[in-house]
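Subject: two folds for Thursday's group meeting

Dear M.,

Sorry for the delay on this. The cluster queue was jammed most of the week, so I only got both jobs back this morning. I'm pasting them in the order they finished. Each block is the input sequence followed by the predicted structure tokens. Could you check whether the formatting survives your parser before we put anything on slides? The first protein is the one we discussed after the seminar.
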Amino acid sequence: MRYLTRLARAASGSALIVALYAAAAEPRLFASLDAAAWVLAGSLGIAVIPGAVAAALVRRHPAALLLVAQVLTIAVVAVIWNR
């Protein structure tokens, strides 16, 4: 698997978990298309860095790639939350 493919998979998996957390916290965010687009763009922005780290670390196993990316994303969100 190439690096950009791994990066895309890891970032999309991490963005999905951030978007689901946002939907669970505030379901009315997804009532309008504009707000949903902002949430998805923000979640992709948050998930790019952990996705890049996970894509650099994990090369062969897609399930492990997503798991590492999601754990790193949760850590990034926790750091952002505490600031």
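Second protein, same layout:
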Amino acid sequence: MQFQLVQVAEPQTFEPVTCLFQSAEKNRFGESSVQGYALPTGIVMRFPRIADFWLCPGKIHCELHDPSLEFMVEICLLGHVMAYYLELSGLAALHAGAVVHGEKAVLFAADRTGGKSTMVASLVKEGFPLLADDISALTAHEGTVYCRHGFPQMKLTPEQVERFVGDFDDFPLVHPSFAKLSVPASRVGEVQSTTLPVACIYLLERGLPGKPAGGAERVRIEPVAAGEAMIQLVRHAFLVQLLDAHAHCRLLGQAHSSAKQGLKASRFHLLARITQSVPVKRLCYPSGYEYLPAVHRAIEADLAKPAADASVNRHKNEDVVLASASRWESALR
């Protein structure tokens, strides 16, 4: 994929009818902080007063509005823009970290402040190669779900850097207003740069300090029913709110005549296939670094279970997932 950055004197004006979405979050000027437009030449993701990102098959072209905000280009590109480009390319961009275990990808999804960064960093430190830190790009082919590798960078708090790296080494802030630092993943542990089949997706539920998750002291791993698993995958999309506006938006490079379904329906069917093919489990554990070794052991023990067990559960859940997808498709027509 090609990336091009240019500076423009004035941003282009787009007709209101071309607007796909406007985020509820506003900037200090009262404008939606993220906007999307569908134009004949491609899809544009606009960050008002910062930059426009033009998304085309195999290319992202960035027009910078304000040179003093050039540092925001990387932040936007490696977050919203890349997730949007992946979704428009037919992949599912989950807000999840991924590590490697036994030549397979293991994903960890959580709500904000849910412990994902700590979990992933701790596993990488213990020898699980990093595959993706914040955005896990998934695709399905002939019954197997694959996870692509992400950018080899981790966003960690100073406390996490001190614990998993050992020194700050003048790591830059991800954003002047954020506490997290941008850390090369190789400073934490090994990095994997290949596409791997997915073994499992864990939904993290970390207890509050002094209050174990689920009311239990021990680490618990339990399967998630097909219907709930589907809901959770939809909820953990990196751009879940923005993608709700894309019922009739085409994928990148897809002509009107070949568009059988919009992006929203297309990605829902992909998530349904992922739910059919990959076990989704809830991982409950107490808060605190001292519990992480026990959590690691529980994860390894769970992954060591025969794959046949997961296969049986997937076949039992298949009818439920397909029925949900069918109802969703009808609602989109």
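Two things I noticed about the second structure. The chain is about 30% helix and 25% strand. Residues 308-313, 328-333 have pLDDT under 50 and may be disordered.

Cheers,
T.
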